[in-house]
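Q: what sequence does this backbone want?
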């Protein structure tokens, strides 16, 4: 899905000057790459460090993640939870559950992360907020739907982060040359820009992170 948007040498330089992965994250990265043909979906070292640091700055009590995959971003985000805080993460593919659970345990986060298996749009309404940090990283055509579903559960001052908002750079192509996912991301980005209830930063980290702060209901 995603290829690096930066030259490889710059990616490697950024990685070399970013705090190394913890043993649990390094093991998860390695095992995901060994076992999964779709390992490119994993956030990885630099984006993971960015998510961890953002979470540590936000100091959330409750986090919701949509799209667990093998748990890399879940572990990074949960590291910023306040004492007593908790995270919910949703993944449609039940085969991924045990691999994520294994590394969540290695990271010492089993009691702090609840894994949900199923269709995110069905599970989100069953989860009570408030969530002071939401990470949207599942199927791209549903980003706008997830945004609508979670918005009321985020308090004013809370944050949402959406991944892959550059979609391999396809968002800057004419619409006629964009694929289905890039078109959906383009609509999502336009939706965020038009929403006066939020402030937003499109950070060109890896495949693009849209960092959204809710400023009014
Ligand atoms: C890009 S990966 C998530 C990567 C992960 N957040 C990380 O950074 O390591 C997207 C995940 O969303 C899951 N997914 C796709 N559609 C979904 C849906 N409708 N409900 C829940 N999960 C879904 C996919 O199975 C996949 O594992």
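A:
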């Amino acid at each position: 899905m995603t290829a690096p948007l930066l030259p490889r040498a710059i990616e490697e330089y950024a990685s070399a000057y970013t705090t190394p992965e913890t043993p649990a994250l390094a093991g998860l990265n390695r095992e995901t790459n060994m076992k999964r043909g779709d390992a490119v979906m994993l956030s990885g070292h630099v984006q993971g460090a960015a998510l961890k640091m953002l979470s540590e700055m936000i100091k959330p009590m409750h986090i919701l993640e949509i799209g667990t995959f093998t748990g890399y971003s879940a572990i990074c985000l949960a590291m910023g939870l306040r004492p007593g805080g908790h995270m919910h993460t949703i993944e449609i593919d039940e085969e991924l559950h045990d691999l994520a659970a294994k590394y969540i345990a290695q990271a010492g986060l089993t009691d702090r992360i609840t894994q949900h298996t199923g269709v995110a749009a069905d599970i989100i309404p069953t989860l009570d907020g408030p969530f002071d940090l939401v990470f949207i990283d599942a199927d791209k055509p549903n980003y706008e739907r997830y945004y609508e579903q979670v918005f009321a559960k985020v308090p004013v001052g809370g944050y949402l982060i959406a991944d892959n908002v550059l979609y391999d750079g396809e968002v800057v192509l004419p619409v006629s040359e964009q694929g289905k996912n890039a078109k959906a991301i383009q609509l999502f980005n336009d939706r965020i820009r038009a929403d006066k209830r939020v402030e937003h930063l499109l950070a060109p980290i890896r495949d693009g992170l849209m960092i959204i702060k809710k400023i009014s209901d």
